[in-house]
Amino acid sequence: MSLDSAIEWTDATWNPVRGCTKISPGCKHCYAETFAERFRDVKGHPYEQGFDLRLVPEKLGEPLRWRSPKMIFVNSMSDLFHDKVSDSYIIAVAQVMAAAKWHTFQVLTKRAGRLSRLLGSTLRFAANQPHIWWGVSVEDRKYGLPRVDDLRLSKAKVRFLSVEPLLEDLGPIRLDGIHWVIVGGESGPGARPMKAEWVISVKDQCIRSGVPFFFKQWGGVRKSITGRKLQGRTFDEFPERVRNPVMPAQTCLTLASTIESSFS
Length: 264
Ligand code: SF4
What we know:
The chain is α/β, with parallel strands linked by helices.
């Protein structure tokens, strides 16, 4: 967990699951893996088990304890819809999100098929909540664009695309039913290059379709140098956020401990 995230499009991260396995080319330089593996076998560290997937039930209620409204990136260090995470655990995560309505949750996955199936069944109660945004990663045409179709056809009320790391020209993207698009290049050692015309193509399609567009970064080995300006300006658009009252503290604490204890 981090209350102050360095990620440009969120305020905080919440990780009730840690660790993951690679599924497509966008995972090649997974920052979560690099970070987690640094602490493998460090006794007492949250990432003592490196990037091995595990549930962290004691973190389930965390957003219910955060009293001020935040945009929360769910599972920045994992993928909630990984096949090693049970349906019942995903439902518990969704119950917390559905209850903590004063926040805005951003759920991002590469397992779009499972996301879509669950939003149409056991997660229906959370799918139509405007403060929960459901997104898929889109790094290329082969793996990324089919995820857009899964998401578009899902029951999610708010749908977004994280086009990062953008690895090639995506060509035409079906943006009907999509409410937000983030684009970014890969950063860090070995970062794969991103061409300006690929980004401009996505941005122009968003403008034509009236979809809010957020340009996160050019990336590269030193992303602080390449920055985040596109055609001379920044693009920092978001979908509209709903504002809901904060639940009484005691109700939050009771709910948090009930949900956490059911997995301890
Ligand atoms: S799905 Fe995400 S968290 Fe999992 S390995 Fe790929 S990039 Fe990393």
